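INFO  loader      accepted 1 record
INFO  loader      residues=264
INFO  predictor   begin
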Amino acid sequence: MRASFLGCPIDLLTMAETVELARGAMRSRRRLQHVALNVAKLVNMRSDPVLAADVANSDIVSIDGMGILWGARALGLPATSRVAGVDLLTELLAVCAREGYKPYFLGATPAVLHQATQRARERCPSLVFAGWHDGYFKPEQEIEVVRDIQSSAADCLFIGMPTPRKERFLAAHRDELGVPFIMGVGGAFDILAGTVLRAPARIQKLGLEWLYRIYQEPERMWWRYATTNTLFAGILAQALVKQAIEHTFGTPGAVPPGPSRIGG
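INFO  predictor   done
INFO  writer      dumping tokens
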């Protein structure tokens, strides 16, 4: 079920439903692009047309962050659960190992990428990679990377490059990659490699993963989260006030009744 949340499309899907859609794409070799939506991405979409277009053109827009989940519920959307990008990656790697599909990893540093692929194989010994490439290639090497992905016959492509580089890469090459399932994974390669620790489950449920990231990388993360979380809170508050006014006075554009002028 697709809905609109603060002007952004979101798909109200469970993890199991999302995994099944990805499996169907890999089985049929029909392209399906997935985007994991968190607070930072939603806020940045408002000033980044490339990112906004990437989300709008995606086939699945999952609720990744607890802030998005809570906000959707506050606005009355029937959002039951989130589909965290790193959890979806883990689930799909298990599917690949079990059913013989081959993933391609693109992004991160060579060291992190090597560690991530090793850890993935340790978790799923039968997993076979179609290929991998770090995200630190030069513009003149981009066509070479695209050709490597094309020739790999990958069933799924997981991209761990920063915004807006990932979006620009996909906008330029999405139609020629030849990979059925495409998904941006943010910093999931770092978590998979063990170079960044994921917040404990209790902190995740409290919606405080962002605070845990600040704790690990204060210099890099504190300003990002302070800015985006504050902006998101303002955007959501404005939407809630608008919804309350519409609920009280009727449809948008209606003029609230004023004092009677009869006889005046």
